[in-house]
């Protein structure tokens, strides 16, 4: 059975998962923008101009050439103004003790502003325990990379299966997956899928694209992650509206 995002919110306990599922239905959007730009002004412009179209703004905060703490103060204000969540796509991949520091310390202090972050499971479950020590009491949520969109990815078969087990054992903090499709029928795990454009295709570095319809309706994912398809368009706002509509129509079609 396909639950609405709101019905799923009522079944979950992690506050970030609840907030995300509720705001998707409230705003009628399952679009996450991957704002992979390298200047603070470009990033804040995207957040403000596209904020009403999205449920999540995904950052790679370490690609900014002029990062300062004001960047995340402004992002936080924009996330409240437009009602979206902040997802730092940090892809942690080290032992628990190291990722704890990477999550809370350094110059980015990710845990202090990012509602959501993500991790590879290659080190084993200690990576989740470490991140959880920092993020759980702040109400943050973690996504595990169960699959990747790139050609030749090693995240498949047994690796993916083990990742699902780690998620099931950490349901208080793990709110879902980066994945190409729904992998477990559990309403509290939210599936986010990158590699989305309006036409199927590839880039020249191994990225592989599927359409919003395929991702949401056929593959039963929940959130489309779109980067260059939007921010490299001539009119990013108009393009974001197209992706938002395509993603939302696919969700409605799946429900009916
Ligand atoms: O498997 C993955 C996981 C992620 S989070 N493949 C991805 O492409 N991503 C991220 O999604 C990637 O880091 C980038 O920020 C975004 C895709 O960007 P696009 O420009 O190809 O849409």
From TrEMBL:
PROSITE patterns in UniProt: OMPDECASE (PS00156)
SUPFAM superfamilies given in the database record: Ribulose-phoshate binding barrel
Lyase as UniProt keyword: yes
Enzyme class: lyase
Similarity remark: Belongs to the OMP decarboxylase family.
Pathway entry: Pyrimidine metabolism; UMP biosynthesis via de novo pathway; UMP from orotate: step 2/2
Organism listed in the record: Candidatus Magasanikbacteria bacterium GW2011_GWC2_34_16
Active-site feature positions: 89, 91, 94
Residues given in the record as substrate binding sites: 36, 58, 149, 207, 227-228
Keyword rRNA-binding part of the UniProt annotation: no
Source superkingdom: Bacteria
SMART domains named in the record: OMPdecase
Catalyses which reaction(s): orotidine 5'-phosphate + H(+) = UMP + CO2
Record EC number: 4.1.1.23
Domain Orotidine 5'-phosphate decarboxylase: from-to ranges: 30-243
GO-annotated molecular function: orotate phosphoribosyltransferase activity; orotidine-5'-phosphate decarboxylase activity
Keywords assigned: Decarboxylase, Lyase, Pyrimidine biosynthesis
Task of the protein: Catalyzes the decarboxylation of orotidine 5'-monophosphate (OMP) to uridine 5'-monophosphate (UMP).
Full protein name: Orotidine 5'-phosphate decarboxylase
PANTHER family found in the cross-reference section: OROTATE PHOSPHORIBOSYLTRANSFERASE, URIDINE 5'-MONOPHOSPHATE SYNTHASE
Annotated signal sequence range: none
An annotated GO BP: 'de novo' pyrimidine nucleobase biosynthetic process
InterPro entries reported in the protein's UniProt record: Aldolase_TIM, OMPdecase, OMPdecase_AS, OMPdeCOase_dom, RibuloseP-bd_barrel
